[in-house]
Structures are given as structure tokens and as C-alpha cells.
Amino acid sequence: MKLMALPEALKDAEEAIKVDPNFVKAYIRKANVLHSMREYTRALEALQAAETVDTANAHASEIHAQELKTQQALFSQRAGETEEQTLERAMRDPEVAVKL
């Protein structure tokens, strides 16, 4: 990630999760990479997975801080959207499109 090779960093984090699904730091790193890629919704999903895996709450403050940072970025990104743009973005979401 420090080299800004974000796709490779994402693959590394996903591979770490495959090797050890309980490795909380891998989910946090995945979220950091996705945040850098401006994939804020996916980053939040990775953080939710990290919360689920972090049963001892050893990384709760780090996860919470990253969630806040990601949510702020997401809100900033969507601040200037028109209703039409919001609807278009929502329709690209498979869960929303299926329900309509």
C-alpha cells in the first residue's frame, strides 16, 4: 500500500483473510486499501466484517476511527449529488436493483 500498488495490496489483504478468516488486521488493511481506492461502501463492509471477527474488541477503537473516516468521505463524495445521480447510483447496487 505504501507503494500505492492498491490492486496488489487489496489482493494481499484478501489472501490474508482466506488464510486466516479471524485475522482482524487483514480486514482493517483491506478497508484502508478500499478507502484509498475511493471504494467507500466496500471499505465499510470490510470494517463490518472486522467488527464481527474482533470478538475481544481488541481493535474496536481502530475500527471505529476508520469507519468514521470512511463515512465522512462517503458523505463528502455524495454531497453534491442530484436526485437523479443518487437514483442512478442506487440502481447500480445489486441489492437495490433486485428489489425494484
Automatic annotation (TrEMBL):
Write out the ranges of the annotated region (Disordered).
75-100
> In the UniProt record, does the keyword Cell division occur?
no
Print the keywords alphabetically. Repeat, TPR repeat
Molecular-function annotations in GO: Hsp90 protein binding
Origin: domain of life: Eukaryota
Which stretches does UniProt call biased (Basic and acidic residues)?
86-100
Q: What is this protein called?
A: Uncharacterized protein
Tell me what organism the protein belongs to.
Answer: Pisolithus microcarpus 441
Q: What is the lineage of its organism?
A: Eukaryota, Fungi, Dikarya, Basidiomycota, Agaricomycotina
